[in-house]
Specification:
The structure holds 2 protein chains of 2 kinds.
Chain A lengths: L2 H13 L1 H40 L2 E4 L6 H5 L1 H7 E15 L4 E9 L6 H4 L3 E4 L9 E6 H7 L6 E6 L9 E12 L3 H4 L2 E5 H7 L6 E7 L7 H8 L5 E3 H4 L1 H39 L1 H9 L4 H31 L2 H10 L18 H22 L10 H5 L1
Helix pairs in contact in A: 1-13, 2-11, 2-13, 11-13, 11-15, 13-15
Chain B lengths: L3 E11 L7 E12 L4 E5 L6 H8 L7 E6 L2 E2 L5 H11 E5 L10 H11 L4 H14 L15 H13 L5 E5 L7 H18 L2 E5 L3 H4 L4 E6 L2 E4 L2
Parallel strand pairs in B: 3-8, 3-9, 6-7, 7-8
Antiparallel strand pairs in B: 1-2, 1-4, 4-5, 9-10
Helix pairs in contact in B: 3-4, 3-5, 5-6
Classes of the chains: A alpha+beta, B alpha/beta.
């Protein structure tokens, strides 16, 4: 690089409040964008995990073929692909308390169902002094407990929605032995857990029983391979097929968020072009002098470009660092928000592990760099109209 | 080969008022700046002296005729080559010193050499040498705002000499200075040009200064006539 370009660029950056403002503005735009990306990506990943681990598993296999997984896909595949396979029986019921009613999914599970992976997604509060009556126990969510205004040890009535049309609608009484909280009320308020054997009594149709399979981390993004390992002749569905609307909502939300963030980034990038334009306007005399002493227009443009692009990149890096700092510490902020009990927050998952979407951050940064690169270049094209003669026509 | 040669230069300006057409400022002027000699152009205000100097330096284009700098016609060059030619072969000094306000005296002097792509150390050594020679050793790190009018003009002279150009074009270089400073700058300029073997093309009102040059031309009624 020509040494004069370096000196001139440094002087411009040092003297200009406007360039500093540009850097701060880019940083202030990038920081919330990065934070929003971390929040939305982590939350969606978190919600996906809740659905997978608590509602449907990665894959559901119809229980008509109920047998060991290794006999279906071979012991090697089973070891490589499958973490757990649990039989569950589920159906729907209306739950009544003395004051309110709620529609829930009753999910019958065995003791082994809540393995370490699932326990990371859920918190249980148990009844310390369970009564010794014959009434069966149920675990309901904190959201359902709030709705029904019930607590541990209380009894609620279940109106079982039969899975067989020939069966008669009948009420049963259950006792709340546990209240759970996954962090996502939208899912929680639909779920309740009972013992697997009791669920089989309530929902005896074979179609109500399935095998929930959790796959190993290596196969989480390769579910199709796991499905094909089972071969044809089985009714198998992936979690996203089982929750089409939830999955499509996520996909659409991700796309919308990216589009909105990209639009915001574009505005910030175009702003740098207007800063460059204003800088040229302010520097007309300086540019004319530099051309007078023998600088080509290309050298003038290069210097102006380096000044503006350097502060843009510096602002971008500052913004990303700030966004990562805030984004990685969202936990305490969300915990505090959740403690406020704001109703509208039930639509959000407030307890999730932070996932940094490097690809999206990279994409947004790349976009800022490319758009500002082009727009700054375009806005600097007017420097060619500034000739040394300006010095004598304006003085 | 002459460092600057003007051949049949005519310059017309379009007048601001519609329908008035054009006015002629310079008409069919020939002038050669001889290597190692100083040439002064005198004339009344508005006679076109500065316009002639701008054309000679490739800052402005003639309506007719051509300007050769070291044998190269300015009109045939693109921006990059024209700038390079100006950078290496011509030094400019104006009444208003036209220094870069955010640059120190040293950086201002170094600018033409840095633009030419010379090494920073080499540029600094040459700039320091020039500033010392013109009595600005203790003002090198001052920005123009902290320098007096005479000092600024001496910085501008150093800048003009930085790349050791064959020719220096000076437009009223002492016009904004008091008598004492003007005398000093005049002497400096003539001495430097003589010592370094440069050519000087000077435009001035100051008859005394003009007649200390080797050649004197009078610009009157758009034409140039030799006085000395």
């Amino acid at each position: 690089m020509n040494p004069f370009v370096g000196i001139w660029s440094r002087k411009r950056i040092a003297k200009r409040g406007r360039l500093t403002s540009c850097m701060i503005l880019i940083a202030l735009v990038m920081a919330p964008l990065v934070c929003a990306l971390i929040f939305s990506d982590s939350m969606m990943e978190g919600i996906t995990s809740k659905y997978i681990y608590l509602s449907d598993g990665h894959i559901q296999l119809n229980a008509e073929h109920l047998t060991s997984v290794s006999s279906l896909i071979g012991p090697e595949n089973a070891q490589a692909m499958v973490v757990s396979a649990d039989e569950i029986t589920s159906g729907y019921a209306l739950m009544y308390s003395a004051t309110n009613t709620s529609s829930v999914m009753i999910k019958g599970v065995s003791d082994s169902y809540f393995n370490d992976l699932r326990m990371k997604q859920i918190t249980f509060m148990y009844n310390e002094n369970p009564s010794s009556s014959n009434i069966k126990g149920i675990a309901i969510s904190r959201a359902t407990a709030r709705k029904l205004d019930v607590g541990l040890g209380d009894r609620v009535a279940l109106m079982i929605v039969p899975d067989d049309v020939k069966k008669v609608l009948r009420p049963v009484l259950v006792r709340i032995d546990a209240i759970f909280y996954s962090g996502y009320d939208q899912l929680d308020e639909l779920l309740s857990f009972i013992d697997l054997d009791y669920a089989r009594e309530l929902y005896s149709d074979i179609s109500s029983t399935t095998i929930e399979i959790l796959v190993t981390p290596e196969y989480m993004e390769r579910l199709d391979e796991v499905v094909s390992a089972f071969g044809s002749g089985h009714r198998i569905s992936k979690w996203n097929e089982h929750n089409v609307s939830v999955y499509e909502n996520f996909v659409t939300s991700r796309q919308m968020i990216m589009i909105i963030l990209m639009l915001v980034t574009s505005v910030a990038a175009f702003y740098t072009a207007s800063v460059a334009q204003q800088m040229v306007q302010d520097d007309i005399q300086e540019i004319a002098i530099v051309k007078l002493v023998g600088s080509s227009n290309a050298l003038v443009r290069k210097s102006a470009f380096i000044s503006v692009y350097t502060v843009t990149l510096a602002g971008m890096v500052m913004g990303i660092c700030l966004g990562l700092l805030i984004g990685c510490n969202l936990g305490p902020i969300l915990t505090w928000l959740s403690s406020l009990g704001i109703q509208s927050l039930s639509f959000y998952l407030l307890d999730f592990s932070i996932n940094i979407p490097w690809l999206s951050i990279g994409l947004i940064s790349l976009m800022l760099m490319v758009i500002s690169f082009i727009s700054i270049h375009i806005s600097l094209s007017r420097t060619r109209h500034i000739t040394p003669m300006r010095l004598f026509t304006t003085l | 080969m002459q460092p600057i040669e003007l051949i049949s230069i005519t310059k017309r300006f379009r007048t601001a008022e519609k329908g008035e057409g054009e006015i002629t400022i310079l008409s069919n002027i020939d002038l050669g700046v001889v290597q190692g000699q100083s040439t002064a152009i005198i004339g009344k205000s508005g006679s076109g002296k500065s316009t002639l100097l701008h054309i000679a330096g490739g800052l402005d284009s003639p309506s007719e005729g051509k300007v050769l700098c070291n044998g190269t016609d300015f009109a045939t060059l693109d921006d990059r080559h024209r700038s390079a030619l100006r950078n290496l072969h011509i030094g400019f000094i104006f009444q208003s010193n036209l220094l870069l306000e955010d640059f120190t005296a040293l950086e201002n002097v170094m600018a033409p050499a840095l633009i030419a792509g010379k090494k920073e150390k080499e540029c600094k050594d040459r700039a320091v040498e020039l500033l010392n020679r013109l009595g600005l050793a203790d003002r090198m790190n001052h920005i123009p705002g902290k320098l007096s009018g005479g000092e600024k003009q001496r910085v501008a002279i150093c800048r003009a000499l930085m790349n050791s150009p064959e020719v220096i074009l000076a437009d009223e270089p002492t016009g904004a200075l008091d008598e004492e400073n003007a005398g000093e700058v005049e002497q400096l300029l003539l001495d430097l040009v003589r010592e370094e073997g440069r050519s000087l093309l000077l435009v001035t009102h100051n008859q005394d200064f003009a007649y200390r040059c080797d050649n004197v031309y009078l610009l009157k009624n758009h034409v140039l006539t030799k006085e000395k």
